[in-house]
């Protein structure tokens, strides 16, 4: 049930904000559009595919409230590259040390992670990285072939409905397929990743530098939290399942607020978006901690013969955590970049 609740909030972050002409609930903080002179001088009926593509791109970027318009690179910006890399490395390293100090003051009492747990966890991380790589490469390829434009121009409710059916169907097909059926299981798992890539391909409208930074921060955040979960006591954080399920429900309701709250309630919409962004980061960071501990728990169960060893199933949870955190990182970085202008 947790998967059903968590999936829509990852893939729908881009699609649920596609506006209609009369629906500007998501644009209460936007500056009004300034129509270009070239568009106004075109005769009626002369709009071609290029104008539709340009409008789709602008629509998607404004769905994030504040777009990320990177200035052209020059010598002045290039000189700060090393400084920014060192700054990012310091943030990631400091996060690892801080989270380990705060959460793992009590060390494991079993002498460290056993070999079978370490092997199971490594296989899970390998499948997680492979799945995220498939999603990124496939999303880029679909975007270059014009899929993002067609997705943005289609009915958002139809896209969201079909996307959820395909996503949940392939996910549960993967979860309930025996690992002995190697070909079918990996085929469904590849279909699950391709479905996520198709739904997330409009993110390629954003600036590549923003996507790279969001990816780096997501890896740093999830890596530090996974380190805490892997080195903590056995089953220390498994109690978080219930509270996290309640938290993801609140985040989901805040994400649906623009559908029911009028556009004039600007303060309410502002707070609902903050809950969706920053509350979502906290919730899915907690899910990362919970999922890593659950992987180790399943490793012990499989070692006792109580369940099948299946790192593919374990990787799906971590992939969903990564996607949810990454999308929020993209939106937060885009908003902050626009605020600095």
UniProtKB/TrEMBL annotation:
<feature type="transmembrane region" description="Helical">
    <location>
        <begin position="237"/>
        <end position="263"/>
    </location>
</feature>
<protein>
    <recommendedName>
        <fullName>Bax Inhibitor family protein</fullName>
    </recommendedName>
</protein>
<keyword id="KW-1133">Transmembrane helix</keyword>
<feature type="transmembrane region" description="Helical">
    <location>
        <begin position="211"/>
        <end position="230"/>
    </location>
</feature>
<keyword id="KW-0472">Membrane</keyword>
<dbReference type="Pfam" id="PF01027">
    <property type="entry name" value="Bax1-I"/>
</dbReference>
<feature type="transmembrane region" description="Helical">
    <location>
        <begin position="85"/>
        <end position="103"/>
    </location>
</feature>
<dbReference type="InterPro" id="IPR006214">
    <property type="entry name" value="Bax_inhibitor_1-related"/>
</dbReference>
<keyword id="KW-0812">Transmembrane</keyword>
<comment type="similarity">
    <text>Belongs to the BI1 family.</text>
</comment>
<feature type="transmembrane region" description="Helical">
    <location>
        <begin position="124"/>
        <end position="143"/>
    </location>
</feature>
<feature type="transmembrane region" description="Helical">
    <location>
        <begin position="155"/>
        <end position="174"/>
    </location>
</feature>
<feature type="transmembrane region" description="Helical">
    <location>
        <begin position="275"/>
        <end position="292"/>
    </location>
</feature>
<dbReference type="GO" id="GO:0005743">
    <property type="term" value="C:mitochondrial inner membrane"/>
</dbReference>
């Amino acid at each position: 049930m947790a998967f059903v609740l968590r999936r829509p909030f990852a893939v729908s972050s881009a699609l649920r904000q596609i506006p209609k002409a009369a629906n500007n609930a998501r644009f209460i903080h936007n500056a009004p559009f300034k129509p270009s002179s070239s568009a106004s001088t075109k005769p009626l009926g002369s709009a071609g595919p290029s104008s539709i593509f340009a409008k789709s791109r602008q629509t998607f970027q404004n769905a994030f409230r504040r777009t990320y318009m990177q200035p052209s690179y020059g010598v002045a910006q290039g000189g700060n590259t090393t400084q920014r890399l060192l700054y990012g490395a310091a943030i990631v390293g400091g996060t690892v040390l801080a989270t380990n100090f705060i959460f793992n003051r009590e060390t494991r009492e079993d002498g460290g992670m056993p070999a079978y747990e370490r092997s199971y966890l490594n296989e899970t991380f390998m499948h997680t990285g492979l799945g995220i790589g498939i999603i990124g490469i496939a999303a880029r390829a679909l975007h270059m072939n014009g899929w993002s434009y067609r997705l943005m121009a289609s009915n958002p409710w139809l896209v969201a409905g079909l996307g959820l059916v395909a996503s949940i169907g392939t996910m549960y097909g993967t979860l309930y397929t025996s690992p002995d059926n190697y070909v079918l299981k990996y085929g469904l798992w590849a279909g699950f990743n391709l479905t996520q890539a198709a739904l997330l391909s409009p993110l390629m409208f954003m600036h590549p530098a923003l996507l790279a930074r969001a990816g780096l921060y997501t890896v740093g955040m999830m890596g530090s939290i996974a380190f805490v979960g892997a080195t903590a006591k056995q089953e220390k954080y498994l109690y978080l399942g219930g509270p996290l399920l309640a938290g993801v429900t609140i985040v989901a309701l805040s994400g649906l607020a623009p559908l029911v709250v009028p556009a004039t309630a600007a303060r309410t919409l502002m707070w609902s978006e903050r809950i969706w962004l920053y509350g979502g980061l906290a919730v899915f960071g907690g899910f990362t901690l919970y999922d890593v501990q659950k992987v180790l728990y399943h490793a012990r169960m499989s070692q006792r013969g109580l369940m099948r060893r299946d790192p593919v199933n374990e990787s799906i949870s971590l992939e969903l955590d990564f996607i949810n955190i990454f999308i929020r990182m993209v939106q937060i970085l885009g908003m902050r970049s626009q605020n600095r202008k």
